[in-house]
Amino acid sequence: MKTLTILLLSALIGLCACMGVSDTTVNKADSPSDAGVFVEREEASIAVRQKRATAAADLSLAQLESLREVCEANLDCENMMDTSGIIAAYTKHYGPIPF
């Protein structure tokens, strides 16, 4: 059974390799600028930019204070709150923020 699986997998890899390679593709890959691998720094930063967590900006001061009060009841949460912030500590110990 293992031999048959290895044989089928090898055949599939060989078939994919044969179908994917052509003379025009190999010639284009010789020069890196033609291959499309490199992009400008601005384009890369736009493509890779991640949305930053804005949970703290969306909460009011009263909501943040209520999260602090809940987190202060648990020593582990309180210690994490001092190092990582209230949002991370509350989320880790109590789950998603309710409001």
TrEMBL record:
<keyword id="KW-0732">Signal</keyword>
<dbReference type="GO" id="GO:0005576">
    <property type="term" value="C:extracellular region"/>
</dbReference>
<keyword id="KW-0964">Secreted</keyword>
<keyword id="KW-0106">Calcium</keyword>
<dbReference type="InterPro" id="IPR035972">
    <property type="entry name" value="GLA-like_dom_SF"/>
</dbReference>
<dbReference type="GO" id="GO:1900076">
    <property type="term" value="P:regulation of cellular response to insulin stimulus"/>
</dbReference>
<dbReference type="GO" id="GO:0032571">
    <property type="term" value="P:response to vitamin K"/>
</dbReference>
<keyword id="KW-0301">Gamma-carboxyglutamic acid</keyword>
<dbReference type="GO" id="GO:0046848">
    <property type="term" value="F:hydroxyapatite binding"/>
</dbReference>
<dbReference type="GO" id="GO:0008147">
    <property type="term" value="F:structural constituent of bone"/>
</dbReference>
<dbReference type="GO" id="GO:0001649">
    <property type="term" value="P:osteoblast differentiation"/>
</dbReference>
<keyword id="KW-0479">Metal-binding</keyword>
<dbReference type="GO" id="GO:0060348">
    <property type="term" value="P:bone development"/>
</dbReference>
<dbReference type="InterPro" id="IPR039176">
    <property type="entry name" value="Osteocalcin"/>
</dbReference>
<feature type="domain" description="Gla">
    <location>
        <begin position="49"/>
        <end position="95"/>
    </location>
</feature>
<dbReference type="GO" id="GO:0031214">
    <property type="term" value="P:biomineral tissue development"/>
</dbReference>
<feature type="signal peptide">
    <location>
        <begin position="1"/>
        <end position="18"/>
    </location>
</feature>
<comment type="similarity">
    <text>Belongs to the osteocalcin/matrix Gla protein family.</text>
</comment>
<keyword id="KW-1015">Disulfide bond</keyword>
<dbReference type="GO" id="GO:0005509">
    <property type="term" value="F:calcium ion binding"/>
</dbReference>
<protein>
    <recommendedName>
        <fullName>Bone Gla protein</fullName>
    </recommendedName>
</protein>
<dbReference type="InterPro" id="IPR058704">
    <property type="entry name" value="BGLAP-like_C"/>
</dbReference>
<keyword id="KW-0091">Biomineralization</keyword>
<dbReference type="InterPro" id="IPR000294">
    <property type="entry name" value="GLA_domain"/>
</dbReference>
<dbReference type="Pfam" id="PF25890">
    <property type="entry name" value="BGLAP_C"/>
</dbReference>
